[in-house]
From TrEMBL:
InterPro entries, per the entry: Ankyrin-MYND_dom_contain_2 (IPR052452), Ankyrin_rpt-contain_sf (IPR036770)
Name of the protein in its database record: ANKY2 protein
PANTHER family: ANKYRIN REPEAT AND MYND DOMAIN-CONTAINING PROTEIN 2
Gene: Ankmy2
Coiled coil (residue ranges): none
Matches recorded under Gene3D superfamilies: Ankyrin repeat-containing domain
Amino acid sequence: IFPPNSGNKEITWMMLEAGAETDVVNSVGRTAAQMAAFVGQHDCVTVINNFFPRERLDYYTKPQGLDKEPKLPVKLAGPLHKIITTTNMHPVKIVLLVKENPLLAEVEALQKCYRVLDLICEKCMKQKDMNEVLAMKMHYISCIFQKCIMFLKEREDKLDGFIKSLLKGREKDGFPVYQEKLIRESIRKFPYCEATLLQQLVRSIAPVEI
């Protein structure tokens, strides 16, 4: 466990990369993230909650079991890890991260990436210490990747068209309807109906009209 109370995001990140355990509790039964939240260091909480060790992703770059090929080409691990660990979850930001990397901005590459994200999501839900937040994040990014594939296949303006659709506001008040529908659709498609986080999201969103 490590002290997050200083509020230094960079040191928190360095310690995580060096192998600091996030689920260890202190003498009063609090994890590092809980201590950071308790003293108001919410940036550190965000860093801890969004951390995903590179080794866990690299696992998919090696053939497993009877597989002859790895599920994720080594060249995609770095760009995908950058997106997985981003703390800015705005769909436009994620699409821009895809767009800025030529290796990632291809249909075949995105297909491999979203399938790996789905596997990580499943593992997060089925492991002993279930991580619903990380599972939901992986599922959400997977949904955005699948929409990227659709635009790459069907639209001449490709990812630029996707970004325009996400940013376009309706005439009467500028509200980005397409963006809202995408986020709601990703929540609706989350495959683990029993998840507490999913039920909380549905309860808070369902009564609100677009």
